[in-house]
Amino acid sequence: MSIEDRVTRPGTPERWSRILTYKPDADGTVQSVRDDGFEDSNLVHEVAWSLIHRNALDAWNEAKAGRRSTLHYHMTANLLNPDMLAQLVGMWRWRVRRHLRPEVFAGLSSALLQKYAWALRLTVEELTSLPAQPPPAPGESNNPPSPGTGG
Amino acid sequence: MQIPFTHLQGAHCETATIASLLQHRGLIVNEPQVFGIGSGFFFAYLPFIKVSDQKFPLVSFRAPPGSILKKVGKRLGVRFHDVTFTDEGRAMDALDRSLDQGIPTALQTGVYWLPYLPGAFRFHFNAHNIIVYGREGDEYLVSDPVLAEPVRCTRADLQRARFSRGDMAPKGRLYYPLDVPAQVDLKGPVRQGLKDACFNMLKIPVPLIGVRGMRRLAGVVEGWPARLGPEKAALNVGHLVLLLEEIGTGGAGFRFMYGAFLRDAARILDLEGLADASQRLTAVGDRWREFALLASRTCKGRKVVENPYGHLANILRECADREEAIFKDIRALIRQ
User: Considering only residues 234 to 273 of chain B, which have any Cβ-Cβ distance to chain A shorter than 8 Å?
Assistant: First the structure.
């Protein structure tokens, strides 16, 4: 099987740089090829990411306006839902849901804050505050809204 | 500490991980062969399993995670050490111990928490397989089969990824081959893999699996715009494309990979008919790709054809018919 390296086209998302796939060549035999992905899944990714970014932006605005806690923003920006966050911190879902209310979140003990901060890979200061800038608008980026683990 | 290890880039993490672990132990099988012998070729439409917050139905184009490893082990006569943990510290200690013994070790991880992956990879998906082949201080040397080069990952990050939560949580799962036979005649395993794939695609008596599942899905897709409204229908189609193209190598990609396996199988079993089946399956892969392209445009709101959902359903039915014919032929061939 020959492996062919292709130059990544400008504008293709970073994730596609040199992914290996199996593709048929001209006479129909399958080869492994490193390439820059397919138009179809790139299109769908745009839709998926713009949805994620819209949610993150909404969450940022909600937290800014004091209707939701900063925990809600950080949860959304990390593509998590209360269910998954509850599993990460080992609490019941209703308890996590309750902490999404700003007045409840404001009264949390430092031990609980520590737990959430660990689960979201943030410092407690980051957890209890919002990023100064709103997350990128839908369609601007194909990366998670939260820098999170730095990927 | 570093174990001499050759990094292998693959199209699908599970098969590539198994292939490179076996190659490291001297058993030369390539990724499509692992996929074929492990009967990874599959189709299932499982509407009662809901994915993500949007409550999408699960559509799978591959055998469930873990089954390839089990089948490959059984058919090739390789015994795997395969364990999960409840205690995070113990899981990391077990990894360190096997590295100290010079064993490249495969881990199941959650992709979102692996910082070395490009941002756009970072969805919450818990069945990603990687190989760790060394450690330097706080950093592990990682051979991630979706990447072109080996990478490094800190202990804390790796621990987090091994104990990510949610669906299919990895629970620190770790595996590596224990006994690898020096010489394996691939004829038997290849035949078994083919037979099993035929059974999965043609014979499972549930109308949601194999070619019948495709036909069922076709009927459902056709009804989406009327049942769910245009917006949700478009999202559902987009989700279908993500499952088709992104989980592992994607539905069309799996067809191509299986095509590569069939070509090898034709040589190993000396059955010319399988090479023909390989060509035909590759042609079906192209059709799946067209399906994905039309579906993604529909999802994006671009109008390409009148009644796109009916068109999508027709492609699905056509793929089902063609794959049915191919697997019937394969079954007849290997019975001889």
Answer: 235, 238, 241-242, 245-246, 249-250, 253, 256-257, 259-260, 263
Q: How many CB atoms lie within 10 A of CB A124?
A: 13
Which residue has 């998590």 as its token pair?
A80
Distance between CA atoms of B235 and A101, rounded to whole angstroms? 29
Backbone phi, psi, residue B265, to 5°: -65, -40
Note down the domain range covering A29: 4-37
Q: Which residues on chain B are in Cβ contact (under 8 Å) with A144? A: 112, 119, 122
Answer yes or no: is the ipTM higher than 0.85: no
Q: State pLDDT tens for residues B104-149.
A: 999 999 888 888 887 767 778 888 899 999 999 899 999 998 888 8
DSSP, collapsed to helix, strand or coil, labels residue B42 as strand
Place of tokens 């009927």: B219
Domain CATH number, residue A90 = 1.10.260
Same domain (yes/no): A118, A60 = yes
**A30, A87, A144: residue with CB nearest B260:** A30
DSSP secondary structure letter of residue B2: B
Alpha-carbon distance of B131 to B109, in angstroms, equals: 10
Q: Is residue A99 part of a domain?
A: yes
pTM more than 0.90: no
In CATH terms, the superfamily for domain B13-37+79-179 is Cysteine proteinases (3.90.70.10)
Collapsing DSSP states into helix, strand and coil, what is residue A21? strand
Q: Does any domain span residue A53? A: yes
Check whether B241 has a pLDDT greater than 90: no
